[in-house]
Amino acid sequence: MAAFGLARNSCGLINGLRVSYRSLVQVKYGAKSACLLQTNIQSDCRWYSVSHLSVKERIEKKRKAAQMGGGQKRIDAQHQRGKLTARERVELLLDPESFVETDMFVEHRCSDFGMEQDANKFPGDSVVTGRGRINGRLVYVFSQDFTVFGGSLSGAHAQKICKIMDQALTVGAPVIGLNDSGGARIQEGVESLAGYADIFLDTSYLFITGPDVVKSVTNEDVTQEELGGAKTHTAVSGVAHRAFENDVEALLYLRDFFNFLPLSNQDPAPIRECQDPSDRLVKSLDTVVPFESTKAYDMLDIIHAVLDEGDFFEIMPTYAKNIVVGFARMNGRTVGIVGNQPKVASGCLDINSSVKGARFVRFCDAFNIPIITFVDVPGFLPGTAQEYGGIIRHGAKLLFAFAEATVPKITIITRKAYGGAYDVMSSKHLRGDMNYAWPTAEVAVMGAKGAVQIIFRGKENQAEAEAEYVEKFANPFPAAVRGFVDDIIEPATTRKRICRDLEVLASKKQVNPWKKHANIPL
Amino acid sequence: WTFLTGVSVTMHACTHTHTLTRTHAPHTHTHCSYGLFSSSQTFDKILIANRGEIACRVIKTCKKMGIQTVAVHSDVDSNVHVKMADEAVCVGPAPTSKSYLNMDAIMDAIRLTGAQAVHPGYGFLSENKDFAKRLAAVGVTFIGPDTHAIQAMGDKIESKLIAKAAKVNTIPGFDGVVKTAEDAVKIAQQIGYPVMIKASAGGGGKGMRIAWNDEETREGFRFSSQEAASSFGDDRLLIEKYIDNPRHIEIQVLADKHGNVLWLNERECSIQRRNQKVVEEAPSMFLDADTRRVMGEQAVQLAKAVKYSSAGTVEFLVDSKKNFYFLEMNTRLQVEHPVTECITGLDLVEQMIRIAKGYQLQQKQEDIPINGWAIESRVYAEDPFKSFGLPSIGRLSQYQEPLKLSHVRVDSGIEEGSDINIYYDPMISKLVTYGATRAEALARMEDALDNYVIRGVTHNIPLLREIITHPRFVSGDISTNFLPEVYPEGFKGHHLDEDRCRELLASAAALHVTSQLYSHKILGTQSDLMLCYRVSSAPMDQNNWELCVELGQELHDIEISKSGNSYIFMNGLCLSLQVKVDGGQVEVCGDWNLASPLLPLTINGTCRMLQCLSKESSGNIVLQYMGTLFKVRVLSKLTAKLNSYMPEKVSEDTSSILRSPMPGTVVAMSVKPGDTVADGQEICVIEAMKMQNSLTAVKQAKVKSVHCQPGETVGEGDLLVELE
After folding, report:
1. Catalytically annotated residues of B
2. Could you tell me which residue ranges the CoA carboxyltransferase N-terminal domain spans (chain A) (predicted)?
């Protein structure tokens, strides 16, 4: 099952959500669409099983019908909603002419509520499945067809998806799911099935229970968009990992994203030919950290400057913005980037950013993607909201994830690395392979002011003591003399150092002690 | 080593990529050797009381002359000049009045470092007689004219009187206190309309009014006298003939302390915006040898009349009939001095230092040549689409000067990673090109501008490139009104004609195809032989592409096919593509390196340097072509078809509302209602977790309302400031 899980995860990162198709609202919706279909389809297309046609002709007919999904009217309606059809999505996602479809002739097997009529049978049912290539690399795809019973899930539908998942597992290839479904088909008592959903701005909604149910249970007034729109899930709930303007943009970005990932968790991180010199000096990094240590700067400036071609695929860019995570390449090799963002909430770690970081680190570790961590963290966010919310438990997730990861781990401390947050951020103590400090680094228990207030509580000449503390600890030496950082490096050489280390660490082998599974503090 | 080669080293100014491959002017004058100059003992240590490119420029020459240098800087400005100097002293906080104009601090720095002389550069204290006096009092040499000349030329009325007495052509007019509006009208009538009225003590176009009749004169008198009294505390007025459509041409002079004065030919500085020069050149196309000589001689007479020593500039207005009138004299090194250096082969800073030490000039007037042609473009961090240039600020995330090209000199004081902030002049550099002829110099300028990589701030290269390629400029038909005349509606960027448009579309499409090919270049790892056997990856054997490119509102169908050989180098892909666009055929060849900001292409056999600013997965590409940025979107034909089903993007205007991005305390509010903020300017500072976060404007706008005060605690999403 390892490869299976992998396949799901590899798309899960962008698609993010496992939906349990069990809600009342969705059931209601499914019923509605079924009624509609019964009336419309019968009159529109009378193509079903006709005995005077030869087998060959019938094959052709069925194929043609499958291409049309729920019929032109429904396709037009889908377009009017600003959405693409299942087939259009597949065509856009995959390399031209690479799609090999499976189960085009599968039909649903429901015989209740008039569903057994031929008019209510659609070849392929409400999902398109098969395999194809993205930039030449193998991928399995399923794409739910909203034009057929609202993309609702039937037994046949689920079976089709399971089939390609099983195939993907046997060859070690990923599965991408393009979800567009109203939910379970009411006419069938379907087993619930885990799925994945892409989420598109303004046209997509995800919720366990819809606004009507929310209103009746908790008396909250909420719109579809507020409850489960793209903004909610990318900025508030963290359920979706990225939102895009529309279907086309999402699929184009997905193609590029796919290039960062290995085909399976048994494959090494992919290496793309690199035109950006691995020994390129990045002069602008020498001045990126401001003189005043309280002044903010944009960690993305550093990240973009260091990477191959400045190409950074950020994950969850609008959620917990005090931590930045995403994929990039160093000398052609895919790497995962984790960085504190001093621009937002001073780059502190809080519940959401810890969870966001932890999930990403585990993803990288699962798929053999080296992790590069940029540290400028003033500490964990204090306060009752955080403590009551369980910051200790959630912060531990990030710590656990870094500690557990056996992929190459390179850490660069750009400025602050204070207290417990320092430890958490892929420190030497969590088996960091190479840990560097910039000359601006300050590895300490806390900021000078706070420290002095505690050490010299109630005493005079605090300013003097503060200056002494700064002199002693607000620099990279205390950490360097203890070997907590391997070297103090000129910022301009950061790219060169990382690329060189990654080459060496490519053969890194580290095995965690055997256990049934790790016990991350969930 | 001829003298000239020596200069060419100096001219490298302040970059850190020292490739000594430029400005080898074909000068045959070898009047004196480099060695001879440096053998003359001048000073051991010079303090440069300035910043930025001019500080770097002076330090360069000092280094060449074996002189130790001291830089001064404010506490936010430890830029290139600080790194270049042997010593550096911080003279105060960011505002210039507290640092670079802070005489006490600079005098302390001199004492501290034991500098024997001070080079003031331009601006700041360069024409401040009190500063020169204070230096003299402690026995430190001021590298510039003596206080008498500074004072005499610093006052518009006095300088004009002296000029008149020295038989220099002056603009007919009146100077002194004008009592009433009717007096002003009388004077104006005597001079003849149009007239210009301005405050005697003002400068830089401030308080200047032009009157074409009696009524306007009365009005002008009222405004200017008020302004004179309030702004300058000096109610004298100047009424003089207004020269319509004038050229601004200036003569560089060089004088020693022994009464020898030379004129080093002219500089044409007519291309200006808001009375600030943008493009300068030497010599001027407009002057004939006789006019040049007469102007030069008059400039020398003026310098002699005030016992001038050091380098100075006499500015003239020249009308269409080559009548010239004295405007003012600048008693300092000018920003645009490099063009004079290029055509005369002299190092003006070196000359200034020698003169300050008391040496006699080594040249005679007949030794001063006009060799070739030099053009200077002032590259500014500003948005030329707004009144020909409103300052922009930011961090130079990427910066590459076009120094690989020959005959290019770049004087700059910044480097990659430098911050361009609100405290100082937003000039990025002075880009100077040189050629045997004007056409050659212009062609090189075009190349240099195309090869100049500036990212992180908005810059005026689009405008500069349009100016130097404009037919009127090329033919020499220019005046100080050039910009408003040529762009009456404001600057709008390069207008693409049909051919250029096709080239741009073809380039964008070719870039898209190249990056698609590149996306397929995933390498299998050697250790994993398994991968090679598994059908994990198929090669891309596509040779034809059907694309759709969106430029502005228009969609263009494009067909691309590989033509001839394409081969892959270690660093990039050499690819030749046949592009069919709008019925025309374009061939695009390039050694495509997608990591480089520069995109050198051969389009239909012509070499063109494009720049790629961004390329997104969504197909959006921003290209710099002919100096201007163009946004295009390249999609496959299928994608374009499907894209037409997508709803139009409705962009929400969040640019005029500033909300607090986090809970915190407002520590500073930098604006008040009615203020105008620039794009990127700080609006307020929020402190959260002992960290100060500066919130900036995302567009230039007027502040409508402010909803918080310093010291106030705000929550996330709280409205702070509204812009109009």
Report:
1. 328
2. 52-200, 202-273
Report the chain A residue with the minimal C-alpha distance to residue B685. Answer: A295
Q: Which of B527, B541, B618 to mutate to test the interface with A (most CBs of A within 10 A)?
A: B618
pLDDT of residue A110: 73
Tell me how far CA of residue B507 lies from CA of A160, B514, B605, in angstroms: 44, 10, 13
**Strand B68-74 with B87-92, pairing:** parallel
Under 8 Å between Cβ of B80 and B50: no
| Number of cross-chain residue pairs from A and B with Cβ atoms under 8 Å apart | 158
Note the pLDDT tens digit of each residue in B24-68: 444 433 333 343 444 468 999 999 999 999 999 999 999 999 999
Q: What is the mean pLDDT of residues B616-630?
A: 94
Chain-wide mean pLDDT for chain B?
Answer: 85
Gap between the Cα atoms of B430 and B378, Å rounded:
5
Nearest to B397 among A135, A263, A284 (CB): A284
Phi/psi of residue A125, nearest 5 degrees: 50, -150
Chain A positions touching B646 (Cβ under 8 A) are 82, 245-248
Q: What is the pLDDT of residue B256?
A: 94
Alpha-helical runs (H) found in B389-437: none
> Cα separation of A199 and A15, whole Å?
7
ipTM above 0.90, yes or no: no
The answer to whether the CB atoms of B662 and A275 lie below 8 A apart is no
Beta bridge partners of A294: none
Cis preceding linkage at B283, omega within 30? yes
- More confidently predicted of A239 and B80: B80
Residue A96: its chain B contacts at CB < 8 A?
542, 636, 638
- Burial label, B461 (beta-carbon count in 10 A; 0-12, 13-18, 19+): buried
Quick one: closest CA in B to A248, which residue?
Answer: B643
Chain A residues within an 8 Å CB radius of B415:
283
Judging contacts by C-beta atoms under 8 Å, the chain B residues touching residue A173 are 536
Q: What burial letters (b/e) apply to B527-536, b meaning 16+ CB within 10 Å?
A: eeeebeebeb
Contact A294 B645 (CB under 8 A): no
Q: Is the pLDDT of residue B683 over 50?
A: yes
Inter-chain residue contact B638 with A202, CB threshold 8 Å: no
Closest-CA distance, B430 to chain A, in angstroms, reads 21
Q: CA of A341, closest CA in chain B: separation in Å?
A: 12
Task: Write out the E strands in B6-77.
Answer: 45-48, 68-74
| Per-residue pLDDT at B163 | 93
Amino acid sitting at position A107: E
The more confident residue out of B688 and B286 is B286
Alpha carbon separation from A227 to A205, A316, B227 (Å, rounded) = 8, 18, 61
pLDDT of residue B478: 94
pLDDT in tens, A101-122: 999 998 887 777 777 777 778 8
Q: Output the six-digit token pair for A2.
A: 């390892």
Distance CA B627, CA B280 (A): 19
- The DSSP symbol for B384 reads T
Q: Which residues of A touch B692 (CB under 8 A)?
A: 292, 294-296
